[in-house]
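Quick question about two entries, pasted in order.
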Amino acid sequence: MKAIGYKKNLPATDVNSLQDIEVETPKATGKDILVEVKAISVNPVDYKIRDNRPAPDGEWSIIGWDATGIVKEVGEDVSLFKVGDEVWYAGDLNRQGSNAQYQLVDERIVGKKPASLSFAEAAALPLTTLTAYEMLFHRLEVSKDDAN
């Protein structure tokens, strides 16, 4: 599959800081779903990870976590999604990112994409929505009753 990755933490201005690459398409097992990525968004965490987290020796790191797409394959323990479902998610920083044709994601951190949003519109929301939610309800302790 096609992806965008890095092997070295180079300055963003370096032509090799991110490269077009070919890697094997992963297989869904356990609670993982394989998502055909349709849209992604870029957040500050993307460049912070690229700047500060080295790729494993000799391997590519793929960044990008906020994404939307279509479920193409499900692991044997998946119960929340089926092939063909449109989904959105913020991903897992400890796994390969969404700057690829396909991404493995644990079904427990995925939601069904709202039908009223395009793939691009929905991809802009996962991390920013989580950040706003945490700010309002965890930091400022706004009552959920007051939010209605």
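Here is the second entry:
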Amino acid sequence: MTTGTGTITTTRTTIRMNTEPATEDVLKLAQWFSPGFPVGAFAWSHGLEAALAEGRVVRGSVEAWLEGVLEDGAGRADAALLAAAYGSEGDALTEVDALARALAPSAERLAETVDQGTAFARTVSALWPDRAVSPMAYPVAVGRAAALHGLPLELTATMYVQAVIGNLVAVATRAVPLGQTEAQAMLARLTKRCEAVAQEAIAGGLDNLGTASFAADVAAMRHEGLYSRVFRS
């Protein structure tokens, strides 16, 4: 049933559409996507470490690389998976999780999304046991948790995508290395695209899900063979 406040009420969850978010919604999402929330995001570089080690990415091309991940890679794909999980439960949710895992282009990238999703689900379930979430791929776990907590879908997807890119900027800060101000300026420019990417991914749904971040995917595969490495992917 659709109400006058822009919500859809089902037997188990209330799905909030593009309504003005409450302060408590913003604060809860800020907590979920904070570097202090124990998902272990700092340990994963999404293949960036390999690209830097092999000279495929240098200081001047880091932003273009991350823009590709955001626009044509996991940023957009994860937002679509998050949205699909938001509106699913039972077998349908299991299928979304299976798709998220199948889309991982390497063993390390699979571990990246599954380990973070498991840690996220574990922490959310411990804090809010009445809205427990099963271990799933990271965007799927976030989408399911957001639905159970009645958080706005578009805001959740936008802040999730920004958090993913923000972590990769933090990786570049350490690994390139970038100066703190330079890194934050880069993140500010990339953040301007996060809302549009989230909106486009939600509108496209799983039928239009796909990626074209081939260099990043190959870098993730090559990372598994690096002799010396700091990050897990």
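Reply: The beta strands are 7-9, 14-16. The chain has one domain: 20-223. Hope that helps.
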